[in-house]
Amino acid sequence: MMRILLSILVVLFLCGSVLADDTVCIQCHAGQEGRLSAPVELWKTSVHAANGISCHDCHGGDPTDFGMAMDPSKGFLGAPAYADVPAFCGRCHLGVREDYESSAHGKALKRGGPQCVMCHSNHAVQKASIELINEKSCTRCHSYERAAKVKAAISTTEANIQQLETQLGELHRVGIDTKKLSGKLFAGRNDFRRLFHTVDVEKMEAETAGFATRLGKIGTQIKEIKDELSQRKMVGGLVVLLLLAGGCIAMLIRKSYHEEE
Amino acid sequence: MNIPKLAVDWLDNRLGIKDLIYQNMGGYKLPRNVNIWYTMGSVVLALLGLQFLTGIMLLVYYVPDTEKAFTSVTAIMNEVPYGWLFRYLHVVGSNLIIIFMLLHMMSVLFMGSYKRPRELTWISGFTLLNLGMVFCLTGYLLPWSQLSFWATTVATDAAGAVPFIGEHIVAFLRGGPSVGAPTLGRFFALHVMVLPLGLMGLVGFHLFCVRRAGISQPPFGDSYKPRLFGEGFEHEHHPDGVPFHPNYTIKDVSMVFFALAALVAISFYAPWLFIPPEALVPADPFNTPEHIKPEWYFLWAYQTLKIFPSKLLGLAAQGVAMTFIALLPFIDFGSERRPFKRPLFLTCFFLGTLLFVGLSIWGHYS
Interface pTM (ipTM) of the complex? Predict the structure, then answer.
């Protein structure tokens, strides 16, 4: 089920990329000044833009019609109120929303607690990384002590995920079909990021071992593929040496003919 | 009873094969100073043979359908036993063939071997080089990757610059207004049937020309004298030369071994040299990659089109250059073949090579 959902999401992303750069929202706002045009440039730098998620995917409306682009009958939502942001983002990021809402952050929302854009920003939203947890950002609301513990609890797993992503990228570059493994890692990474949105250090520490096992299985499969690639290279090297030897022997035979000639 | 001997004798009594073999092997004499550059043709021939074999292996598993082509290539690379090896040998081999064809052509140019009576050998050889590039172009589309799709779109689009009939040529090449299933169908048919048949015929004709005219004396050393050919047919004999077999064939074998070593080394250690990242992503007609570039041997043409203010002028410049090279034996018809006694030719040769390399590098980084 998870795979099907992921596939649907990927297809939606790809379909979105068709229109991402070419909507009436972009055309109109890009030509304006000040705060009306600022989101366009910010969005262009975002992970959303890189994945084909455009204005209408979040704000609704008709991206093909100037007249109806901001019509509520076409689903236009505009900018959400501060407290509505988690629900706004959570339409796509369902799991994260669930964990956030049950967290200390989520529970504090009505009292002005942090929501998504506080840490991730809005239009310039970047690919999430562990560096989002930093003293400067967290101390805007509270001391860094607990956040540091959260960061420490997830650092190893997060680094492991990054490393596996890099290794899968390298395997893909040499023609290995990494689709299944990438899917597993993608699912694992999402589940893990859900977990740390709970900002519950004890829960994170308790569940990290499970993630380590999941990631370990992926790592083992990657290692098996790498071992096979190394074996291929060994055999290839041997064949190259044999061919070079064959060439040299043929040259020596030719030289012996020279002496006869 | 020695059955093989009996079979050979039986054939010899009817077709005279022993005499035929002797005439074309041991009795066929080559100049004593034939150099390593004379082996380039044999290397190309060996690599073409390997392309044929690996191509058949790929053909067993490849599916020429826009919905299945990329998946079938992925399966060849990951599921078919040794499929990755056949594909890499095929991809790297195609690039090496172009490299060795270019080296072969440049050595023939440098030594003036294209001159009378070898005009037809030159023209057939030059046509073979172009056929080789068409082979690569058609093969490029088959994996139906982002690179395949967009490189073919750019390449076929260039034909649109031809006045009056440009649009029709593009539609004919693509089988429709844009690259799609009909394009894949016709490129596949060209790649696996039409071009191999054409290539085999042309290689046969090229070898026939080489054999009939005889191997040209390398234009180096004190013993070399420019040779004047009369009006009638004349085979260039080398009565005091060395036998083609085994004295020369062993040199061919040696170079073929070295070329295969290069092929295997690249296939096992650096196949990505000829497989850019865009070739690993399935074709998406709605998502244009930022920097789509043709393969290295088309970069000069790509850059030429960009330099000229209009595509038509660029195409015309390419056409003039290619026609000039094809007809070179009829333009440069003097009997002198020694490179250092032909300063004008030598200057053009080096400037032309520099231009080709320069435009290619410029095209790569532009």
Answer: 0.92
